[in-house]
Write a structure and sequence with these properties.
The complex is a heterodimer of chains A (506) and B (404). Chain A has 506 residues and is of the alpha+beta class. Chain A contains 18 helices and 9 strands. In chain A, helix 9 packs antiparallel against helix 15. Chain A is elongated. Chain B is an alpha+beta fold. Chain B has 2 domains: 251 residues, Rossmann fold; 83 residues, Gyrase A, domain 2. The chains are: A alpha+beta (506), B alpha+beta (404).
Chain lengths: 506, 404
């Protein structure tokens, strides 16, 4: 034999690096490790606390692909534009004046800001946030959109009854939200459809009959509401009625709120979000989560889970297998029968049961997995290797010069078994990653962490259409799982090649 | 006073077929500085003898008895733990068969050599490493070897490491179990010279187990020839190798190929006997070229041999319909069709007279008596040959009168 089986973990590792699969695996794992270390730096996020909090993600568009995907359609797709409230840079500009007429105090507040829209497609949504403080009587609010072609459209008018103590402390979740695209029924912003209709009729773009046929609303409720974000930002001609033919009117738009208040203390502030149709590196899901964050944080979670689980269970199994093979007799019998028992326990159903009953955290799941893996196939494999090793002469030699049984186990037998164990660890990591992904997919994973499996589970439960339309939601977490498991599998194969004499090329 | 006196050492293994008589009633003694070579074919119990002396027993021991008197004390009386602590390696150490496999591949050579020190004296690692260096120097290896792993060493170096390991506790007796069997001739010579030097400088006693007669004659003062679990001849090497007493020793010596000789080496026909049921009488009689009446033929063997020659001789043998064994020395043969018992007895008698020298088992026939339908064959009674001689002993019936 040209080369002998390398001795020890270090030698085996160096040897494994010389194979192609070992090198590939090492670079893939190196990348993953680097990512896992860097993630807390490049994407600092209190993931555990923010993932399930919708307000954190409120400004992201819903279910949009990654930004770079616009290259596939050859268009410059809209990014999300946020106009912050007055008081923040680039925010709404506020003008306020109070005057008295016939003994009555009036206050007029005007909030306005422009935004430049130079994209080739329409936004996915438009939301206006509005905060006001007033005296006894609600102010009268008008919201307008002024287009680059000079058209000015009244979006809605309202007399809001919700008061905020201080309009300058603008918290989006505490103020009134006017969703122009998806208003709730009888919401004041619902008027925007009626206002758009009368604007279009007045410009002879459409007529009442056509509008009724396009957007039937016999009870005042639209089963297929008009897309305000398209109609408001399209070239003013008949083609705008059909979203597929509508042309974007590029240029500078102005959003304006005019508030007529009835006391000297009346004041107002506003914020606007024009949602894009692409987002970030990986896109978003239906909860507006930034999938980049989930994808990045999935790496350390998967790595840690897979490695800790595989290390713990394989090392425990190896030790028990070695003890079983070396000491033999009653100990052997006990360990092996326990292993048989463990092997027939259906782990996944039990995990599902535990998941349903206790909703364990990631650590809990890991603990349960390790407990169910203290004996198993590796115990049997190790035992068979030990049975072979213990007949070797250096063991007999050690016995002859008086080494105790424990000393032989730890100094002679385990070092011989460890390289195989290392290969087994590498091959077991994917199993653990898959298990965690399966549990998360079934909705039984850690409820607070966005793992890759959980993203897939969310996508799956959102409906079958997801798998065809919203490819980024499925592709990236699946790619993450596959990348990691392939890396470890390649590592395992590389070790196997080095350590299994029958697979070695001479 | 002998440093090691072994008396009636017996080691049987339990197997499914019955007990294996691996070491059967072996006795020899060894003075300080003396070397005994134990020579024999594979499977004759050489290594088992070594293991029995060092009490390295497998789990399936059926019988383990006799006396091992080391330094005046019968160490068979010691408990396992006491034996491990006071005799193994401190008093009697061992160089294993196939040094390539006797080293732990995961441990550096230095610690491997020092391992017995650490086990027995709980010496700390640094001091153990110093002593290991000393031991390596003693066997002619460079000191920097301590940092190497066994797989980086050549066969001869490994063998020296194993010897260093055997000597590190300064034992009085070293068992060399085929220490050179996997080495080339030059390396073998080097190792043997090293062993000779160590023997001279440290007054070591060796039990040298080998199947290589040349090496045995090189190193040994005494030679024990082992066959089927027994020592058939034990004597001074100058004597045994020159004028062997036992026929087996003679055949063994004749089987060694010689340089510059046209004659083909001889071989011993047949195979070593099954040790679960060793032959009665002299265990070599089945293959012995000079076996005769007393050598211990049993009725079973007679039947077996008869069947064997019926294949080759065919028509010369009177037709036989069946043979049945009544007792170890007594069997009944039914002649084949159209033959009377009396005719058959006569025919068998003449056949055996004619072929006695060719098929020596026929000599075992004491009498052939025809009965009504069958022939009763009585064989000579026999017992194991006595072990004859004082300084040079052998067990063969031919030695009864002291000749050869």
């Amino acid at each position: 034999m040209a080369m002998s089986t390398p001795i020890g973990i270090r030698a085996a590792f160096l040897e494994a690096l010389k194979t192609k699969s070992g090198l590939a695996a090492a670079s893939m794992l190196g990348f993953l490790l680097l990512l896992a270390v860097l993630v807390p730096i490049i994407a600092p996020y209190d993931v555990v606390n923010s993932w399930n909090n919708p307000t954190v993600w409120a400004d992201n568009p819903k279910l949009v692909p990654p930004e770079w995907s616009e290259r596939f359609v050859g268009k410059h797709l809209p990014r999300t534009i946020i106009i912050p409230p007055d008081g923040e840079p680039g925010g709404f500009k506020r003008a306020r004046v109070s005057y008295t007429s016939e003994g009555q105090i009036y206050t007029i507040v005007v909030l306005q800001q422009t935004f430049d829209f130079q994209y080739d497609a329409f936004p996915s949504e438009i939301k206006l946030y509005f905060a006001t403080s007033f005296g006894n009587k609600s102010p009268l609010v008008h919201a307008y959109l002024e287009r680059p072609d000079g058209q000015q459209i009244l979006l809605f008018d309202d007399t809001p009854s919700l008061r905020v103590p201080d309009v300058n402390k603008f918290v989006p979740s505490d103020v009134i939200t006017y969703s122009l695209s998806f208003p709730t029924f009888k919401d004041p912003s619902y008027e925007v459809f009626a206002n758009i209709k009368s604007w279009l009729i007045s410009k002879n773009v459409t007529n009442d009959t056509e509008w009724q046929s396009l957007y039937p609303s016999p009870t005042g409720f639209y089963s297929n509401p008009p897309r305000a974000q398209v109609l408001l930002l399209a070239d003013l001609n008949h083609s705008m009625l059909d979203p597929t033919t509508a042309q974007v009117l590029k240029g500078t738009y102005t959003i304006r709120f005019v508030v007529n208040g009835f006391s000297s203390i009346d004041d107002a502030n506003a914020r606007a979000v024009i949602y894009g149709t692409v987002f970030g590196l990986v896109g978003t899901d239906d909860q507006r989560h930034d999938l980049t964050v989930a994808l990045l944080w999935g790496a350390p979670v998967a790595l840690a889970f897979g490695l800790v689980g595989a290390l713990a269970s394989v090392l425990i199994q190896t030790l028990l297998g070695a003890i079983s093979g070396w000491y033999g007799g009653v100990i052997d019998e006990f360990v092996q029968r326990t292993a048989d028992f463990y092997l027939i326990i259906p782990t996944l159903p039990i995990l599902i049961l535990i998941g349903i009953l206790y909703r364990p955290s990631l650590y809990g799941i890991l603990f349960v997995l390790v407990v169910f893996g203290i004996v198993g196939a590796t115990t049997k494999v190790t035992r068979s290797i030990v049975l072979q090793v213990k007949e070797e002469q250096f063991i007999e030699a050690a016995r002859s010069y008086g080494a105790s049984r424990g000393r032989i186990l730890f100094r002679y037998i385990l070092p011989r078994v460890m390289p195989y164990t290392f290969a087994l660890i590498a091959l077991t990591v994917p199993a653990f990653i898959f298990l965690e992904a399966s549990l998360s997919f079934l909705g039984l994973g850690d409820p607070n962490l966005p793992t890759w499996g959980r993203l897939l589970g969310n996508a799956y439960s959102a409906g079958p259409a997801i798998f065809y339309t919203f490819w980024w939601w499925v592709f990236f977490p699946a790619a993450g799982i596959i990348f990691t498991t392939v890396a470890f599998a390649l590592m395992g194969y590389a070790f196997d090649k080095v350590l299994n004499p029958r697979l070695r090329e001479q | 006073m002998p440093v090691l006196d072994i008396r009636n050492l017996t080691l049987w293994y339990r197997t499914r077929k019955g007990p294996v008589h691996a070491v059967d009633d072996i006795s020899f003694s060894l003075e300080p500085g003396q070397t005994i070579a134990i020579v024999g074919e594979s499977g004759c119990g050489k290594t088992s003898t070594a293991n029995a002396v060092l009490r390295l027993l497998p789990k399936n021991v059926a019988r383990y008895e006799g006396k091992v008197i080391f330094d005046g004390q019968d160490v068979m009386d010691l408990g396992n733990e006491e034996f491990r602590r006071s005799v193994r390696w401190r008093g009697i150490s061992m160089v294993f068969q196939g040094a390539m496999n006797a080293l732990n591949p995961a441990v550096r050579v230095g610690y491997q050599v020092a391992e017995p020190l650490m086990v027995h004296y709980e010496v700390d690692r640094d001091e153990a490493a110093d002593q290991a260096m000393e031991a390596l120097r003693k066997v002619g290896l460079p000191e920097d070897l301590v940092r190497r792993y066994p797989h980086e060493l050549s066969g001869g170096m490994k063998q020296r490491v194993v010897i260093a390991m055997a000597l590190i506790l300064k034992p009085k007796v070293v068992i060399l179990d085929e220490p050179t069997s996997a080495l080339d001739v030059m390396t073998q010579t080097n190792i043997i010279n090293l062993l000779k030097d160590l023997k001279a400088s440290d007054r070591l006693s060796y039990i040298f187990i080998t199947h290589d007669l040349g090496l045995a004659s090189e190193l040994a003062d005494l030679v024990g020839i082992m066959y089927a679990g027994q020592l058939v001849e034990l004597g001074p090497s100058e004597g045994v190798f020159v004028r062997p007493k036992h026929p087996y020793t003679g055949k063994l010596l004749a089987s060694v190929p010689r340089l510059r000789s046209e004659a083909a080496p001889e071989f011993i026909p047949g195979a070593p006997p099954d040790l679960t049921a060793p032959p009665s009488g002299c265990r070599f009689h089945l293959r012995c070229p000079v076996a005769f009446e007393m050598c211990g033929w049993s009725a079973d063997e007679f039947v077996e041999q008869m069947e064997a020659i019926r294949q080759t001789e065919g028509s010369k043998i009177p037709p036989i319909s069946s043979m049945s064994v009544k007792s170890p020395t007594h069997l009944v043969i039914r002649p084949g069709e159209n033959g009377t018992a009396a005719d058959f007895a006569k025919a068998l008698g003449s056949f055996s007279n004619e072929n006695k020298e060719k098929y020596r088992f026929l000599k075992a026939i004491e009498s052939v008596e025809p009965r009504t339908k069958s022939v009763e064959v009585k064989l000579f009674e026999s017992s194991p040959p006595p072990y004859i001689g004082d300084d040079w002993r052998a067990s063969c019936w031919l030695l009864k009168e002291g000749g050869s």
